[in-house]
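Hey, I'm writing a tutorial for new members on how sequence and structure tokens pair up, and I'd like a real worked example in the thread rather than a made-up one. If someone can provide the structure for the chain below, I'll link this post from the tutorial.
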Amino acid sequence: MFTGIVEELGEVVSFTETVLAVRGPLVTSDARHGDSIAVNGVCLTVVDNADGVFTADVMGESLRRSSLGVLEQGSPVNLERAATVGSRLGGHLVQGHVDGVATIIAREPADEWEVLRFSLPPELARYVVEKGSITVDGVSLTVMAVTADEFSVGLIPTTLKLTVLGAKAVGDPVNLEVDVIAKYVEKMLGDRHVG
């Protein structure tokens, strides 16, 4: 479980077909084999950790359901260690299980912040509500507005500076994780039988 509060901007050291190596001195400072680290919102398991670099196996399912496949040596990535019991929940409950990939369709700068608009995959639209939580590339954000096929969020200067969202361009893919509570509510209501 994660909170969507990015701890560190890491850097991809290498990425073969199945093994991702990422430099992240902060998140590796106490990482052990088997620990979970979210990379752009994808929960990965630490296989090895040495000299500020951790490696993780990446299976085909993760590549199919996320934007990890576009990463290459030198790519910046959002990193977050798994939350521990007693951690502050600064964002919202995030599983690190990507629900889909969206595309940045617009960046609208303002004085101190920026509004980003994203495409919204049709199968996820029912889970995204105005003022609700959504995770974009591992960042816990509040939905400002939503339509049937897009949504927008506002990014404060800290988020622009300390996450990959500050440098992403129109057309770039991003990982989405919708609020898991919405999915559970839908399932519970769908399982109800009348009569």
